[in-house]
């Protein structure tokens, strides 16, 4: 700060304490708490509150409440007058906090990476958790000040509107938990792959993109999810009308009918996902060239996400209302879409590049030196756990962890015809994803200038080109069901496909998988021969 108070012994003492506890936080405070920045943050917060109060000063209730010609009549009572102001502040705070925090964190870390100062931070003796927590606490500091100044107004309007203080506690606990998760994700996105360098000096472009996604999707999702679940009993406070809670269960556990259950479910998942993101941050901060997650972490993450998604498909209400057959098949489609994204992310995050594979050949399970044990068991253990080993075995295990719970659920269906179709879909998904994993590993093992771009282009072509070519050549799913199934489009043909087409399509995919596996083994053996 540029005022004299920052030079006083008391201020210096506080700065020393903060610096001893978290030097990165002190660095951010010194950078953000300039007099001009404080005036802007405080001024905007107070301006919003004054304008809100001036607007509602035109709606002060009186004995003869009437509607003005231009629309905004006076409030029916003082309680309604305060409630309307409380509602505006409640809806505004998440948008302001999430938007400002995400933009400032992504822009700040990207700028540090672009300028090269992030490398100096990395060599600090402090832990990555200490440094990144300093970023989360310090970079959005002006947003925290603005929101903090609005809390007295928020509390006053809540008291005037007779809103339970328990709701305010719930609101701020959930907004803090969600903000921490969102800001942690913003740090991770800013650290990934150095994409900000492509913008040159315009590092704010990526920050604007993620802020836009936060504004149009994440902040509204935060409010509406909690309105329909956690805050369903306070829906009149938030939207002006009564909203019945969604009768949702998770593995038969009601998560919307009980306020404590809904809070525990939401907070637990916020904590689990935040913990997972911080494990990735620890991994990537000091080693930007490492894979996004370790193979062991991927097994846990995919299992958790699969159980989380599948839990919403297992509800007593479905059986009570006679939901079965085609409805269950639609639920499978709903799970199928995020599973595709999940496995593509796993392939991208786990697949090592050429240099990592060469290091594995030289020092890993294929090493011929005496200090390394030999045998198929050691090689298999290395393929399952080593981050530098080829990824297909790890992807196969991730497929097992994601598809086995779905397979168990499918076998509980009463409709045998829908169950058979679901089995075809699951088998096609498993083979297709394993095929993509092999292709991705072979492409990243090539000696090319930008293997990641090649991998993305080739897999994208394999996903979209076959359907475009078959559609343009009038190769319909009805007449050539086996061909469509071979290219990984089971949803178009599963209703009327013959057993012979299924056998031919899966036999073709397995043949391609075997050929690609042999090619990968051959490439690894060639690399091993060069090293020896």
Q: Any chance you could write out the topology, listing elements then pairs?
A:
Blueprint: H1 9-21, H2 23-32, H3 35-57, H4 78-115, H5 117-122, H6 128-138, H7 141-160, H8 165-191, H9 204-228, H10 235-239, E1 249-250, E2 253-254, H11 259-285, H12 295-311, H13 316-320, H14 326-350, H15 354-363, H16 376-385, H17 392-410, H18 416-444, H19 451-472, H20 481-486, H21 499-531
Antiparallel strand pairs: 1-2
Helix pairs in contact: 1-2, 2-6, 3-7, 4-7, 4-8, 4-9, 8-9, 8-11, 12-14, 12-17, 14-17, 14-18, 15-21, 17-18, 18-19, 18-21
Gist of the model:
The chain is built from 21 helices and two strands.
What does this structure look like?
With 532 residues, this protein is mainly α. It is built from 21 helices and 2 strands. The longest helix is centred in the first third of the chain and has 38 residues, at 78-115. The protein is globular, with a radius of gyration of 28 Å. Residues 1-5 and 195-201 have low confidence and may be disordered.
Mean residue pLDDT = 82
Q: Which range best describes the helical content: under 10%, 10-25%, 25-40%, 40-55%, 55-70% or over 70%? A: over 70%
Main β-sheet: number of strands, strand sense, barrel status?
A: 2 strands, antiparallel
Give the ordered list of helices and strands.
HHHHHHHHHHEEHHHHHHHHHHH
* Rg over CA atoms: 28 Å
- Low-confidence stretches are 1-5, 195-201
For the largest beta sheet, what order do the strands appear in spatially?
1-2
Principal-axes geometry comes out as globular
